[in-house]
Fold each of these.
Amino acid sequence: EMRSSITSSSSRRRSEKEVVMFPFMAQGHIIPFLALALQIESKKSFSITFVNTPLNIRKLRSTLPHNSSIRLLEIPFSSSDHGLPPNSENTDVLPYPYVIRLLEASTSLKPAFQKILQDRKPLCVIADLFFGWTASVAKELGIFHVVFSGCSGFGLACYCSLWLNLPHRKINDGSDGYFSLPDFEEANKIHMSQLPLNISEANGEDAWSKFQFQNLSHWFNSDGMLFNTVSGFDQLGLMYFRRKFNRPVWPIGPVLLPSESRASVGKQTEFTSMVCREWLDSKPLNSVLYVSFGSMNTISPSQMMELATALDRCNKNFIWVVRPPIGFDINSEFKAEEWLPEGFEERVKGRGLLVQSWAPQVEILSHNAVSAFLSHCGWNSAIESLSNGVPMLAWPMAAEQFFNAVLLEREVGVCVEVARGKMCEVRHQDLVDKIELVMSNRDKGSEMRKKASELKDMIEIAVKDDDEEISGLKGSSSKALDDFFCAAMAYETEQYSMK
Ligand code: UDP
């Protein structure tokens, strides 16, 4: 009975029940939230209110499809009140040291958010993993609350465990740099070189430690977690959260943004899309390496030289999204050739396509000419790659990317790590060897490709939906989303009966 009442009716009739969604102000967070909002809108009969600060809402207005019924709601915020530059409401316009300040400033949204919930009385709140405090607000008002993670279960489990325990602080100088996670032994040994900068510098007293500790302690007030992942390959991490917080965890991924919305969220142009498509169309099946490090991270000038040399030497087709290197003066104009070996573009002509700044990544990954993806392992990139059956070369750089790489390499077997961190020394020969290994049609290369294609099938099955439930074919992710809404409705019923 309950099931049928939460699936969307073809007449698009909306029930009164409302879902409030509230992502942190960063593209890497807003994108999966928006993808989830659009998915809920298309499949379920709830009204959706998407909360964010004024400038982000303004940008989102031009992103939402015209016929969307998602309500965009501004929560008042002025960056200059918080020691941030004026009009800076998204990490994409803030230098890294300001990110923690934006996080700290976000806790000041509490009274305004409380008011929103009081006024709207929604069925549930789906909040960002950096907005732990929203759980306490929702709890006080008797509203069902979940944290939605755009990270993998495994990656986030390592990341949370590190912040909660700071285990790397306890190893002594004479050790080999390896340590384990006290509450997540399943992750095996972690090495110091796998720590993002803010964790390796954390001492429990710094701004990041304080923020994370506070934030995570609020999660105990939440009623569960949604993950943009698939239960079939991410069990260990999901289990960590079930155990740690003693709450249900619903793996509902992959939620991916439809291509119409992708174009306006990013900075891609129709022209770049056309150039990439035509270029890929001219290349043989499984012959192209795609190289990109996401929307925020870049490599150092010397790493850029090594990578270019590797691409020059390995004689493979490639698309490389070239972004200004670390230390680049953002006030000057970026000219890729000034940062590449002399004559590089000439030598790779015909087999190498350089795209400056932003490429149509999902279109590229879904093209059958693409054979492998050299990636920083941001979870959106990873899950886009897996959804298209493309094996990966990992160069993790920040946050939980190091542990996404571990999941993909050790647990899933579709990835080889080639380098670690923004400061590491990479040698071009090393890159050449690993690129050849992964792109080869023999041995490990063909094994990984086979595994990646099995994963693609697994993902397709996980998101199977519609009336297939009747025949017992509803996929694990679709079922998890149903289960989540059932839990929210049951919670609401219980609240009423207590009154
Ligand atoms: N992306 C893209 N073109 C680019 C770079 C990134 O379309 O040139 C998209 C990519 O498809 C993904 C997102 O931006 O959806 C990046 O998210 P991810 O979690 O991989 O990394 P982040 O940018 O958050 O580090």
Note: The chain has a mean pLDDT of 93.
Amino acid sequence: KTHKVTLIPGDGIGPEVTNAVVRILEATGVKFDWESYAAGAEAFEKHGEYVPKELYESIERNKLALKGPVTTPVGGGFTSINVALRKKFELYVNFRPIKNLPGLETRYPGVDLIIVRENTEGEYVGLEHEVVPGVMTSLKVITEKGSTRIAQWAFDYARKHKRKKVHAIHKANIMKLSDGLFLKCARNIAKGFPEITYGEHIIDNTCMQLVTNPYQYDTLLLPNLYGDIVSDLCAAFVGGLGLVPGANLGTDAAIFEAVHGSAPDIAGKDIANPTALLQSAILMLHHIDEAAAADRLQTALERVYTEKKTLTRDVHGTAGTSAFADAVIAAMAVT
Ligand code: NAI
Ligand code: MG
């Protein structure tokens, strides 16, 4: 079977890490038919649109995309393409497993956390207004439907994967109505999962608790913005943003992408770590029922990290992006 996949290389380090991952995926033996599209500033220069119509149509057809990061300018310019794609395809789940790779020494060994971030509402609805000069508002929208479906997904995942705890993270002491509703929905869903311990922690305390002892948590269920911030925090447990994968999931489509952004500080130098996107691609292989290829790739990746010979700079190696990809491909050949 040939899998049709929409490919969004993105910008900054996007094209470098995407290239590396596509080469590795091609070497798994799984057959792919890539439909590649520019998005962001580059797409605007070429087509006059930040997200070309063809890109939307391609995802609509394939229901599957692999995506590199896209730079979103601060202030004016355009609204985030990530936000646009997640909204358009109702990708309400942002799933981010935080797990140490065998062989890689990190600040905290043996971390195994699941982040389930609500991906379509909260502060990301883009409802911002200048009330009068000098006064700006950004609306945060939390709905019963949005909160219930993400809580349901988190608990279903926890049950399926035999996770023990789910913590809903909030600031309902201050945002009594919006975060209060998020909690109420989570509590309701939790009732159907008596075998899973349910807890509620306030976001600021959660940050302190995580850094003090990340092992006390199992699955974290968070509204959009808190999930965004806590993801980067948790990335530091397992070696940084170069490692952590993600999946944007909805009922009709899935977009796999790393947690990190376009890293302009290291772009174009062949030094970015493609592991985060590669691990996202492994999630994608599972999603398309190519579990054998996913396992082969995982084993090869772990071998490269255990051997420590060809690692990128962010994980204290000296290898470049493409040399790392070559090493994973070579490791696959011997497994
Ligand atoms: P960033 O995640 O791009 O970079 C943060 C730090 O981590 C930098 O020091 C960078 O060099 C390092 N880093 C990130 N990925 C790495 C990798 N694969 N290997 C080695 N080091 C890596 O965050 P930043 O700089 O705040 O954002 C840059 C741009 O990316 C912004 O325009 C932002 O809006 C956009 N962004 C896009 C995302 C997406 O398309 N999904 C997600 C997050 C940010
Ligand atoms: Mg982020």
Note: The pocket of NAI (ligand 1) is lined by residues 13, 17, 69-72, 82, 241-242, 257, 260-266, 272-273, 276, 314 (CB under 6 Å).
